[in-house]
Specification:
The protein has 146 residues and is of the alpha+beta class. 23% of the residues lie in helices and 26% in strands. The strands form three sheets. Strands 6-5-9-8 form a four-stranded antiparallel beta sheet, sandwiched between helices. The longest helix has 16 residues. It is globular, with a radius of gyration of 14 Å.
Length: 146
């Protein structure tokens, strides 16, 4: 698994990914020739009290702050980078119902996911993992699988 860093501005208008070469690409400026092709991804979601639905299968009432959610997610990213399987952590800790599938969301195309999630996923290469990605649902780490 290769890690790239992905950030959005607070207006959720752009995703910038830093590749290992140190260059930066903006997926919304350069969608590429396969922009309409489907992708497949898994994710691990950490919700916070400002999430659009601050509840999950794990917790009926989520009260953590956005900053606490980011700290938790960054801990999971460190564990993945140290060799813990992505799907194991997603199964146990993701606040999304996809946890029962190891975080697997299946295949999807453009326009099916929240824009920051979509842009981050399309910016990844297969088997690359994002940094923290912010959406109305919470904070995600995404692994593109196809």
């Amino acid at each position: 698994v290769h890690v790239i860093h992905s950030e959005q501005n607070h207006g959720n208008k752009a995703v910038v990914s830093t590749q290992s070469t140190g260059t930066q690409e903006s997926s919304w400026e350069h969608p590429g020739e396969n922009a309409s092709a489907q992708v497949r991804a898994s994710h691990l979601l950490v919700k916070h009290k400002d999430s659009r639905r601050p509840a999950s299968w794990r917790e009926p009432n989520i009260t953590r702050t956005k900053e606490e959610a980011l700290d938790i997610l960054n801990g999971y990213i460190k564990m993945i980078n140290a060799g813990t399987p992505f799907s194991d952590l997603a199964s146990e800790f993701s606040d999304c119902s996809s946890a029962k599938r190891g975080g697997d969301l299946g295949s999807f195309g453009r326009g099916q996911m929240q824009k920051p999630f979509e842009e981050a996923t399309y910016a990844l290469k297969i088997n690359e993992m994002s940094g923290p990605v912010y959406t109305d649902s919470g904070i995600h780490v995404i692994l593109r699988t196809a």
